[in-house]
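Troubleshooting entry. Yesterday's outputs looked truncated, so today I'm pasting the complete records for two proteins to confirm everything comes through intact. If either block looks cut off, that's the bug. Protein one:
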Amino acid sequence: MFRSPSEQRSDSTTTVTTSKIWEQDDECAHDKGPRRSAQLHRAHAGLLAQRKPCLHHPQPEQRRRHTAHDLPQQPGQELLYARTVTSYLTSDTNANSIVFALYTSAQPEPGQSKPHAATIAALTGTLAGNGITIRDGIFVGETTYSPFDDEIGQTLTFPVSKTQFSQVNAEFIYRGSTIAPSNQVILPEATDKAEHATAVEDHQQTILSQPPAAAVQKAHDLWTAMLNTGEYPNDDDTTALISYFQFPHIRDQLMADIPGINEPAHHILFAQTQTPPQWSRIEWAQQLLLHAYTRTSPQHAAPILTTIGYINWWQGRGSKAHQFMQLALDSDPAYRFARLSDQMLGAGIIAGWNTNKDTAYKTRLDMP
C-alpha cells in the first residue's frame, strides 16, 4: 500500500518519501487541533493493517499537499490503474519524477515478489512513456523500512521509529497535524425508531403523488435552504430530506446542489467542473447528512451514507469513501448506487477536482 509519512522534493520533482503523513492524506485520521503531541510515530504500525493501498503525490506549489487513492482491489486492473495515476500525475506540468512508499503488514519470504509488484511494474512503464520516472521506492513494514527494489532478506533495513525525531516530523507537529489512533469511520448513533421510518415512508407517498419536476424542485428548495442557513433543520424537514434521498432522480439533483456550482449536474457529480467547488459548503452538507442519518432506519440509510461517501471521494479521501459505501451496503446490500460507486473507487478513479491545485480540497496545512 502506498503511504507518505513525509515528503521532500525540488521544485521540478514530485516526490513522496517516508517520515510523516500530511493531513490531506485520505487514508489517515488526523487531529487538526492545537495539540503539539510528539507521539506521531506511534500510530504508524497500528494503522498499517487498516489502511488500504493508495498512491500519494504532492502538488508543485510552495505549500504542498498530498492526495491519495486506492490501489486496485482485484487482479487484472493494474494497467488501468497505472494509466489513471499517470494521467493524474501528468496534469502536474512541473513534475518529472516520483518517489513512492509501499506500506504493508505482509511479510513475504525470500524469493517472493513484493506486494503489488505487478502494479508497480505497470506504473513504471506508463509513467516512463510520459516522461516521468520513479526515482525511488520504499518498502515499509510494521517496524522497519527498506528500499523497494532490494531482495527480501538481503537488504539494509531501518526502524520506522527513526522518523520520530526527523526535522519534517517536528515541523508537522508544530503545524498541528497529528495522526489519530484509527482511520475507522465512526457514525453517530441512529435512533432507528419505528415512528421515524413510518414518517419517511408516509412522506415518500406524498412525493410520489406529485409531478416529478415539482418534487425535484421542492427537494432542491428545501436542501439549498439548509445549505445556506447554516443551521440544523427541524425534525419535519429532516424527515423530508431523508425521503427525497430515497428517489434516485431527486438524490442526483441534491448531490449536484452540494458544491454550489452552476454547471451541468453530471459534470458536478464527477468533479469535472471549471468552477472550484465551495468546500465549506460541502463540509456543511456532510454534517447535515450525518445529522439526517441519526434519524434514519436501516431501510432508509443507504442513500444518505452513499452520499457522504461520495463527498469523501470529492475530498480525496478514498479509504473513508470506501468505508461509507460498505456501510451503505450493510444497510441495503441491493443499493446499486453504493455498489457502483465502490467499484469506481476500486478502479482508482480520482475526482477531477483533485487533479487541479486550484479546485482540489484544501486543509488547514494547505492554506497560504
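Protein two, checking that the full record survives here as well:
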Amino acid sequence: MFMKTVCPKVIIHGGAGSSIKGKGGADAIRKSLHSIIEEIYALLANGSSATDAVVRGCQLLEDDPRFNAGTGSVLQSDGQIRMSASLMEGQSQRFSGVINVSRVQHPIQLAEALQGSDDRVLSDYGAAELLRDLQLPVYNPMTKLRLQEWLQERQANFSHKMAGVIAEDELVTSSEARRGTIGVVVLDSLGHLAAGTSTGGKGFERIGRVSDSAMPAGNYATADAAVSCTGIGEDIMEECLATRIVVRVTDGLSLVNAMERSFKEARKNQRDFAAIALDANGAIAWGKTSEVLLAAYHTGEKIVDTLNMTKDVEFLSI
C-alpha cells in the first residue's frame, strides 16, 4: 500500500532567559544550534524516525558544554549535578523520563530505554540502577566553568536563585538570571511527532528539587502536536504548558491559536518561560515570555534561528 510521506521538520532549543552577552556569544550559540539542526535533518532525510532523531538531537545538545544539560550541567546547592530528561512519542503517546540522575553522559538515553518499560519514570536511585543495567559507563558531566560558577556563588551564600543557562567566561560573574534546558521536537517523513527535553536543573537549588523537564508539563506529544518547554520550571508546571498547548491543538485549535492563547495567559500570570512546537501538518511555532529564546528550526528548505527575534510568538505554516 502506498504510504504518503511529508516534509520532515525539526525545531530545537538551548534555553531561554535574558539577553546574550556580546556578539561572539551569540555567534557561538548560533553555530552550535545550526550544526545540530543539520545533523538531525540529515537523519530525517534518510528516513530516521521522529523518536530516533529527537534522541540524537538531545544527545548532541547534551554534549555541548555551553548548554545546561548533560556535559555542562549546573551544580545544585550541595555541589552535585543532578539531571532530568524525558521523551514522548506522539503516535503511542508514550512518555518516559528520569529525574535527578547523576554520573551519566546522556540522560535522554535513559529516558529512551524506559520507552519499552512498564515503569517509565524513574528518580535518582532507580535511574542509577537503570544506568548499571544498561552497562553505560560512569561519566562526570561537570565542567570547570560550572564549578567556578558554583564556587563563586557559594562565597556569596547562594544569593542568586539560579545558575547561568549558557556557560561562558563572561557569564560566570554575571548576575543576570538565565534558565537552562535543551529540547528537540521532530516531525518525520511518515508524519509522526516526538519531543525530548533535558536539563541540569536551575542550579544552586534545594537538594531533591524536581524539574518540569521530566514531566508532561514540560515535554508532551500526541499524533497532533508536540512541545518542549524551557524557562522557570515551577512556572511551566503551574501552567502545565506543554500539555495545555498540545491538548488545545487536539481539541481543534490551530497550533498558532493554541500558542497565542497559552502565552497570553502566561503573560497575565507573569510567567517566565518559552516553548517550541510542531504539529502534524508541519506547522512550526515558538513562543516566549522571557527576553530571549535560544532556538533554531529547519523548514525543509533552510535553517532559521530566534536569537535576534523580538517577537513573543512566531508561527510558520510551511
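Both blocks look complete. Sanity check on protein two: Confidence is low (pLDDT under 50) at residues 170-178.
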